[in-house]
Amino acid sequence: MKLLPNFLTLLRVALIPFLVFLLNDPTPLYQKIALGVFVFGALTDWLDGYLARKHHAVSDFGKLLDPVADKLIVMTVLVMLVGVSDSYGRSWVQPWIVVLILARETWVTGLRAFASSKGLVIPAGNLGKIKTFLQMFGIAFLICHGFKLFSFLGYRITADFFGNYLILLSIFFSYYAAADYTSKALEFD
User: Which residues are paired to 155 by β-bridges?
Assistant: First the structure.
């Protein structure tokens, strides 16, 4: 049971090739399958943390690589969705959004590596967890690009409308959390 959380982290990374295949040319059927694969991956993120705490199986491997697995699955989907265009020729995800997220994630990974070189592990804080939650929900909606959720005042409200706003909100939290990680890392210097 103590190895199960780390197995779930590795499983999340193993889902990446399937997401690449499904989102390379996403038909409505592939979108639904990709959504299922992504949601499964997001649930394994929650489950591995829960099991690690419940069974006292928190490890340095998990503290370090669980956030990396999250970053990999998030960036995989976002990069793939930049390459997909709607009927107006617009990317499902704007490239600048991916650049902001990738820059932040690279920075925080560097900070964790720096702390690790000092023999310390900086686990994900509450702000980082909120960011991950918002990103996971936002990405789930983005995968469902074009799916009508409801109509409002004669306008068709689609899943990607909500997905984009959740991703923008996650960027706010992610940069705020990055500032917190930076201040913690500077304490070790």
Answer: 152
Exposed, middle or buried by CB within 10 Å (0-12, 13-18, 19+), for 130? Answer: middle
Backbone angles phi, psi at 155, to 5 degrees: -100, 140
- Phi and psi dihedrals of 67, rounded to 5? -65, -30
CA–CA separation, 53 and 67 (whole Å)? 16
pTM (two decimals): 0.88
CATH class for domain 4-187? mainly alpha
- Residue-wise pLDDT tens digits, 108-167: 888 888 887 888 777 677 888 899 899 999 999 999 998 888 888 888 889 999 999 999
Contact 73, 144 (CB under 8 A): no
**What DSSP line would sit under 56-118, residue for residue?**
T---HHHHHHHHHHHHHHHHHHHHHHHT-B-TTS-BSS-HHHHHHHHHHHHHHHHHHHHHHHT
Residue 71's nearest CA partner among 107, 25, 122, 22 is 107
Q: How far is CA 114 from CA 16, 21, 135, 181, 188, in A?
A: 27, 34, 25, 11, 9
Distance between CA 189 and CA 187 in Å, rounded? 6
